[in-house]
Structure formats: structure tokens, C-alpha cells
Design goal:
mainly beta, 35% strand, globular
Length: 293
Amino acid sequence: MKTALFMKSHSLIKAGLFCLFLSMGHSVSAQEDGWEVLFNGKNLDGWTTKIHHYEVHDNYGDTFRVEDGMIKVRYDQYEGDFNERYGHLYYDKPYSYYQLSMEYRFVGSLHPGAPSYTLKNSGVMFHSQDPRTMPKEQDWPISVEMQFLAGIEEGKERPTGNMCSPGTDVVYEGKIDPKHCINSSSKTYFGTQWVKADLIVYGDSLVKHYINDELVLTYTKPQMGGAVANRYDPKIKIDGKLLQEGFIALQSEGQPIDFRNIKIKNLKGCTDPKAKNYKTYYIKSDEDACVYE
């Protein structure tokens, strides 16, 4: 009898704890709703490579590779020095309104011949042109970059989650900022620690950068303009044209880096509560996406 009573009480406690867990975790599951994994942890299916001096799809030197469930950027198979072989790995679907999330860490040493400014420097490009529109000798895609940096010397600040603008401009603090890069307010991260980066993009209006869940930079109206990108097709670059959508790409510029937990929440979709595929987190209406009974 004692055993039976104990088992019954134990079951009731477990049931109560389970209900409590569900009630406590409800907000977490709601936050996770809508996330789509971009990297499957096994291969680069759904991704396209473009490296300076090479044709699209040519992943020279196995620059972008999958190991240990991560996307790794490496240069151990390069012949000679870096030779401006700036590379980008593009997800094959453009987005306009979304939240992008990933983790990154810097590892290893800068490849010989890479510019000194690329030491512990990488990033993710967004609102990028399609890599298939890039000539072989175009160095940087026309895009906006969420730049990732790590500290080099103790006592010297080097924030991460900055904005850089190859072939683009943004409005910062009420006007187009002439600087190629705008620093965020993040703290400096040293060593090989993993850093979480989130990017919230509202089409051609608002962009927010988060580092380890802290808002570190806000700007508006991403658009074509500016310099830095070279040898692009001039028909592609229309200065002043607002960037409403584009491709997302992980960067390679001489510094080994790892990426993991890459996911996206599309914020554009059916906003009609009567539709089967209505979601509360959509902020941009797409009536054509609505599905009804």
C-alpha cells in the first residue's frame, strides 16, 4: 500500500511539475514559433559560393566547409597568399522582412597576404545582390554588412555588430552617413568565445543589430550608393534606390571563423486572422500568401 501511495503521489507531482513547466515555457515556445533553420548542420545544400577571381559556385580551396555541425571558413588549401580572394556564401532565397540569428567565433590565424584590417574581422551581408549577377572580378557584393569583430589588444575597444556598406548607403541619426562603417555600442569580445548575433530587417525602412540579445545599432533606409564595391555590372547599381529585399551571405576575408545555429524568422506573410496561415508575428502583409478553407 505504501508503495502504491508513493507511486500515485509521485505521478501527481510529476504531472504538476509538467504543467508548471508548460506554463513557464509558453512564452519561450511562442518566441520560437516561426523559426526556420537555414543551415542543416550536414552540408551546404541551399547555399551558393562566390569568391573574388572565381566564377559563382566555385568554392576555391574548400573555403566554406561543414565540419562538426558548423560552417567553417578556412584557408589551409590556398596556394600562395590571400590575393584578395574575398568570399561570400549565399543562402539561395532572398528575404525582405525578417529576424536573422546566428552564433560565430573567431579561430586560428589570419592567412598570409590578407589585409591587416581583416584580422578577427568577418560578417554577414544582407539585402545583397544575387551572386549570379556578379562578374568574376567583382570583389564585394552590393549589400549591407553586419560586421563581426573581436578584440586584439586588451584595453582597446573594438565593438562588434557594426554596419559596413559596400556599394550602399544608410540613414543614421537622421541623415545619410558618409562613413563606410558605423560602430555599434557593443562591448569588445576577446578570444574564441561564441557570440550571438541577431539582425532585424524591415524591408527598406528599419534595421536593428543585436549582440548577445542587446540592441547595439539602429539605422534606416538601406539603399544603393557609396563606394568600396568594385568592378560590378553598372546596370545593377542604381544609386539612391532603396533596398527592399536581398540575399544573405556569410563572409570570408582571410580570418578563419566558425558559424552555427543559423536560423531566420520570416516577418512577412498573411496578416488576416481568418486565414489558416495567419501568424501574430508577421509585421508585413502579403495578401497573396493567405490560405483559406
